[in-house]
Each structure stands twice: as structure tokens, then as C-alpha cells.
């Protein structure tokens, strides 16, 4: 009996829905090439002129002709949007005017150099973000992109050419384009164009470019990468369509987990995992395990973690944050529970003097894995390692001077407790009192004070409890062994207790987050009315996170801020609030949109409708919002939006009921008048 290969109706409906949604959104076409000079801008302008001849409203937003006569000739006759002047530290920079484009709203706009970085103080740091906003407003966009600017391929290109390209575009943006036009030029022809001066026009630039980048071997490799990346995208689209039509062959699905750490090798791991997921058409997840090591990271280390997670998310990864004390076992347990088939992990050869004492995390993972494939990416010799600073070394031992004083006092107290029993119990039993002191100090004060307590316990025990008393001499040689075991045991127990204490703090923080979420949910469910909802939201968010909270609620007359009476005169902040309200996307501090704003602004979205904006400003101006906090804030914003939606629906239902009653009364009156 042949298998049922009928189309999946749900998937077909999803495709139809996506198509209808895309009609409301603008159409993005990328002219994609292997390097500069292949003719991307020329092809884009040629097609734009054809569209203009068909009667479409075409406008140039940005086109870089690089002095080429052929390109300049194609620009003539096409309307050009004036650039806006941005002053930055006394220097005037001309950039694309996004607001003017949204007001003018052409049918099709040309945006050359998709990966361009905008000037500081622009609305978006990157041009591709400007393009996204144009698309969201229903404007079609043509743009150009070289393969080396794709984020997942960035490291491959660097290894080929020796040049790190800083301006990149996330692969998710590339993959979401409606159309990719591959502009392919043979390497020999491109080198000929370079020799004729048709690639760069600056004096002496051709020779340097040819030597550093435009080698035939590099061009061949880049051309191959561009062709392969385009083919992968076509295959993915074909698989999606075949799956909806019920024509795909049964395949064993892959699910990839990438492990993120503070090591700079993580950037290479992320791009490697992205390429692996693209080739296998598999979902992939970037996982960060927050163990006690996280507590020892300085601010720069924690910032690197957030940067790596944002990079992975921009390339299409799902972000997962875990906490645990046994990294390898905790990671494998999560992988088995969630059906992962492969784990990608980095490996660096440890220092020679550490090799006999401990294995690497990758080795522990391989030894404990059961049925899960482990892919190890080696950190090449000479590549940057996680920086080891003096601060990172001493951070585990940092504590207040008072804590070290309390550790010393604890040893003195243990001595005082043990002293009356010196003559009635063996001295080895009294050593347990010192061990108890070390455990208590480690649990309450941390690792550094516990080590001090361990170091003080041995001489105190020797001085007060070994014969001869009140000297550091002793008669029995077995005390050497006693002192050694006492010191080692104290250090080990103190270290383990300190780790348990740090883990308990992690669990306590998670519990605190859950309690805040529960409290907000319960508070919002118990009140009605906009004022009450905003009061509950502000009360639950401002205190625990040290935030100044403002809720901007959409009303027929505009955005109404709560608490009542707040007047925001900062145009930059209100610009961010209005943008979030209009676009339904997050903006402000520590985001990619208007990052110079002081506050973080999140849309209050429920069922794709924006009910307002949640504004959060840290009271400590130097405190950055990390990814975990932003995820929490998004969850809070969703709860607040749901409460506002319920209030809106309740008000609408009440108004509808009043109108219905009025209509009934009107009908009764008309009926009675007619009867009379």
C-alpha cells in the first residue's frame, strides 16, 4: 500500500498565510555576489530601470557608484532621495534618510551595500535594519551583498584571505529575502576588470587589493562559497514546499546544540554550528550553562557571553540558559530530555602542567555521552584565548575585610570551644571542631575566608592541642600526617561548601525571578482598569530590579504615561517610545534600535496588537541590561499587555451592552408611539 502523500492542509494554509502577510510587507530582493566588482550594483540599477519603465515608482535611497561611468549612467533618470547630514564629533556624515523615505513611500527603493554600518546616533546601527523597517512599512527594496558579509561565513573568508570583514548581515535576514539574484562573474574576467580599473578607482588601490584580496585562489574559493550558499537556500525553500505538498522523503531529523562560553573561540563555534545546521536543515540551539564559574567572571567576561548569545540569535539559533553545578552531566541530561542528536563544543589544549591533573570539558562530555554525537571544534594555535587577568584570578577570593576578620574570629571561637576538652578527649577529635568552623565560614562568607580559616586552623591546633602546649613544636612525628590531612580536608571541604553556597544563590535568584513573575501575574489578575494595572506593574517591577518604570498606554488621544503627571521632555526618549508604539518592536538601551537612549522600551503586545509601551530606566546608569533580564522584561510586558487587552475587551463589551439596551429602549418607544 503506497504511503499517504497528500499535502498537509495546515502547512498549506500556513504557506498561504505567509504569502498574504508578505504582500502587506515589502518585497526584498538581494543581488548577491562573491566579491566587489562582479556587477551587483549594475544589475540592480538595470532591473530598477526596467521596473520604472513598467510604471513603478522607483527611487534611489543609496547607491555607491565608486566613480564608474557605467554605473553613473544608469543612475541618471532615477529620482534620488537626498541624504541626511549627521554631525558626529564635529564631522558631518551623510547617511540614508529613513524618515524621509517613509514619508515619501515609493513603491521600490534601492539600497546599495546591505551590510553598511550607519553613523553614530542614527536610528539603527546597520543599514539592513533600515531595510527591515522599510519592508515593514510595505516598501519593496533592492539591495546588494557580497558573500564575505554573511555572518556565518565571516570566519571562513578570514581564513581564506587573512582579512576580517567587520560589517556583516545576519543569515536570518538573508534567508528571509523574497528573492536572491546571484551575480556571477568568472575569476579571470574579474581580475581583468580589476586591471582595467573598473573595480576600484582610487590611485594605487587596485594593486593593494589584488595583492591582499583579489588573488585568483581567493576569488575561486569565494565564488564556490557564494554558489553553495545560494544552493543551500534554494534547497531549504524546496524542502519547505515539498513538506507542505506531502512530497518529502522521510528523514531522521537532526537537532543541534551549541555550547557557548566566555572563550573567544565561541564566535567560531557559532558560525560552524550555523553552517552545519544550514547544510543539515536542522534546528539549532545555543546553550549557556550558568555554573559557579559564571560568578567568577568579571563584567567584560559577562558582556562577551551576551555578545556571543546575541550573535547566535541573529544567525537563527534558539537561546537557552541553564544553571547547574556539574556542567557535563547537566548538559547531557538536558540534551537527552529534549531530543538533541548532536552537541558542538570547543576544545583548547590545556597547559602542559595541568594535563596530568584534569581533562578538558570536551573530554568529559565525550566520556559521558550516550547516543549523542559530539562535534569538537579545535581552537587553532595562536588564536585568541579567553583573557586571564589578575582580577579573574583573585576574584574567587575577594571578600570584605570584615569577612576575613570574622573567619579569624571563627577559628578563635573554635579554639575556645575545644579548649575545655583538651585533657578529656583525643586531640584528633578536636580537629573536627576546626573543620566545622571551616564549613560554616565557607557557607556564610565564601571561598577566600574559608581558605584563611583552613590555614589558621592548623597552627591553632598545633599551638593549643599538641604536646608540648603553647609552642609550634611537637614530639610525635605522626602529627605531620595529621596536619597535612587536616589542611587538605579543610581546603577541600571549604571549597565544596563555597561551591554549594554559590549554586544556592543561583537557585535563589531563579526562585526570586519566578516569585516576581507569579506576583505580577496574580496582581494583574486581581485588578481591573488601566490605572490599577499600571500601578501593579510599576510596583512589581521598580523595586526588585531598581528601575524607574513608566507605562505608556495607547488611547484615542495618543500615548498616556503612567504614573499620571509624568512629562517626558527628552526628544530622544519620546522618539524611542513613539517608534516602539508604531512598529511593535523593542528599542532603546542595549538594543539594536536607538541604543543611545537612556531607557529600554518594550511593546505591550497581545494578539499582534500594540496596547502601549513599557519604559524601563536603570537607576544605576552604568548597569547594562543583559539578555536574561531582557527576556524577563519581555515576559512581564506580555503579561501587562494581556491585562490591558482584557480591560479593553471588557470596556468594549460594556459599551456594546449599553448600546444594545439603548437600541431596545428606542425600539420600545418607537413601537409605543406607533401604537398610539
From TrEMBL:
Limits of the Signal transduction histidine kinase osmosensitive K+ channel sensor N-terminal domain: 25-234
Localization of this protein: Membrane
One GO CC annotation: cytoplasm
Recorded topology in the membrane: Multi-pass membrane protein
TM segment ranges: 404-421, 433-458, 478-500
Pfam families named among the record's database cross-references: DUF4118 (PF13493), KdpD (PF02702)
UniProt protein name: Uncharacterized protein
